[in-house]
Amino acid sequence: MRLFARSLRLAAALALLAGAGQAAAAELAPHRAFYKGTLEVKRAGAGAMAASGSMATSLERACDGWITSAQSIVDATLENGQTARQDLRFAGWESLDGAAYRFTSRQRVGDAELGVKGSARADGPAGPGEVEYTQPGKKTIALPPATVFPTRYLMALIEKAEAGARQEVGIMFEGAGGAGPQRAAAFIGARQPAAADAAARLGPLAARPGWRMQIGFYEPDSRSPSPDYEIEILQLDNGVVTEMLMTMGPVSLRFAMQKVEAVPAPRCQP
Fold it and tell me: pLDDT at position 3, please?
């Protein structure tokens, strides 16, 4: 099941995926989305004969920030006939100005469980930052200059796509699994109109234009042309993702949206 270990990080990135750009700030629609996953590609050495799963993500607006969550369950049948389940959960809060971030995650594979918890700060758009982990053990790591947190990265992606850019590269930190910052390189396709049947199948939040994007995740100082893992998504202009293909080594899992629902905005004091 190590092949699926990064799916939490992928789900977390998608649940959040806001940064300053030349265009007006992207307007994200608070929502909850539900997906069904199936094994799309199995290459030599995959170790899994079959796999299926489910995922739920949410992006909610609070008065002081964005609250995000992701839950994924993947069931796999291995080449030796054994079955295994990986249950992954993530939650995060990011301040509206993108300067502060808190996160917690839990990963269970069989009887083994790993919990991660911490907080981070970014010292301005070009400054460095710092992460303080409190679980599973206390440690502090530095963040490179210009590191952004996931919601800010999502907004930057949409803003760049709206402006006609075909690529966006940045350093992002989301914390799931206890790993450090990542270099995220996104390739952005041409703008696509809303699918004709999207409203009927999935509701009005899915009836929006968007872009197909391929995002590779690397260690910040990696010189390898191949990413550690990658995702392909259909990213709508309101922050909703309707399709995703997660590639982890020799295995690719496709997650198709089953439902998306709006989350009411909070009532905040002026």
Answer: 42
